[in-house]
Amino acid sequence: MDLTELKQKQAFICDMDGVIYHGNNLLPGVHEFISWLEENHKQFIFLTNSSERAPRELQQKLGRMGLEVDESHFYTSALATAAFLAQQCPGGTVYAIGEAGLINALYEAGLSMNDVNPDYVVVGETRSYGYEKIEKAVQLVFGGAKLIGTNTDLTGPSENGIIPACRALMAPIELATGRTAYYIGKPNPLMMRIARDRLGVSRSQTAIIGDRMDTDIVAGIESNMETVLVLSGVTSRQSMERFPYRPRYILNGVGDIAK
Question: Is 17 a catalytic residue?
Answer without folding.
Answer: yes
